[in-house]
Amino acid sequence: MKRNRMLYRTVALAAAVVLTANGLTASVSAEETRMTFRLEASRSYLFASEVKETDVVLQGAMYIEHYSGINMMRLTLGSDPEIVIENGGFSVPNFLDDPYDYDPELTSNSYNDYSSVQDVHNLVAWYGPGMINTNGIIDDPDASFLTFDVRVPQNIPVGQYQLYFDQRVLKQSSGKDFPLLSVYAEEGEYGNDLPAIDLQSFTVTVEPDPVRGNVNGDGRVDVADAMCVLRYYAAGLVGKAEKERMELLHKEYPHMGYAAGNVDNNTICDLNDATFILRYYVATLIGDEPNWDQIINDKS
Question: Is the N or the C terminus of the chain less surrounded, counting Cβ atoms within 10 Å?
Fold first, then answer.
């Protein structure tokens, strides 16, 4: 019991050293004020075992934030070729009023899963109300503008995969340019007459399956793994954002790092986990064959 208390105090002291050595202080982020098109999916990561035997379908959506007026737009959703955007359409309820509520003979909108003319998928057109295409009116400020499925195929390799707004400019058969992203308000075109729209992509990461205690993924359980947990814990003490804290566990595969570091499986990655990792490592140094359950439940 005394030995365990001493080890715990040592780990706590190490956490304090990590705080100082890494200069961890609270940060403040500036508020974004430009109109923003944001993509999102129901999950940002999957473990490799989840796609080992079947495809996984996530629910995706596009949101409009800091709305400053749209009377006409064309946009195209894109993705890395390994994943697929499909079954897209306008949300119900929708962020903007349905133009058909104004005059169905003078306006229309469309979501094309595939345009054979342009040879692109997920091509969207939206027009504001009335013949002069006045700016659309916000209908539901909490609603998305588009919804779609994101299919992550079976046995997809570990890695990061992007959902994004396709900004290519295609050439029509007539020789005219056909931009896959163009947005207008009554006052003019965004990115030309008006400030550019902030486009936020979304990353779906397929992460390696976690190995208990091996936080940094190098194939060993040792002091380096305990230090990863300590850095994560210390960053929480100074109010760092969870995303930034997670990257202290493993920059590329943070959820793998978190799952591997939470060795007692209590949903919290903390000093106890760092202590257990160190005890496991010490046991290997003296030639034991450590057992996680015995280490965690050992009260001696």
Answer: C
CA distance 266 to 213: 14
If you compute the radius of gyration of the chain from its CA atoms, what whole number of angstroms results? 25
Residue 30 banded pLDDT, cuts 50, 70, 90: very low
Same domain, 72 and 143: yes
Strands 177-179 and 169-171: antiparallel
Which structural domain range is residue 233 located in? 2-27+210-297
Instruction: List, for residues 242-283, the tens digit of each pLDDT value.
Output: 999 999 999 999 999 999 999 999 989 999 999 999 999 999
Residue 205 domain flag: no
Answer yes or no: do 85 and 171 share one domain: yes
DSSP 272: H
Degrees, nearest 5: CA angle 280-282-288: 75
Say if 285 falls within a structural domain. Answer: yes
Which of 21-25, 157-161, 162-166, 230-234 shows the lowest mean pLDDT across its residues?
Answer: 21-25
**Does 165 lie in the same domain as 42?**
yes
| 56 in a structural domain | yes
Residues 43 and 174 in one domain: yes
- Confirm if 41 and 202 have CB atoms less than 8 A apart: yes
pTM for the whole thing? 0.84
Rounded to whole angstroms, the Cα distance separating 162 from 165 reads: 10
* Number of domains forming the structure of the chain: 2
Shared domain check, 173 and 272: no
Residue 28, pLDDT score = 41
| Pairing outcome for strands 36-41 and 56-65 | antiparallel
Q: Is 202 part of a structural domain of the chain? A: no
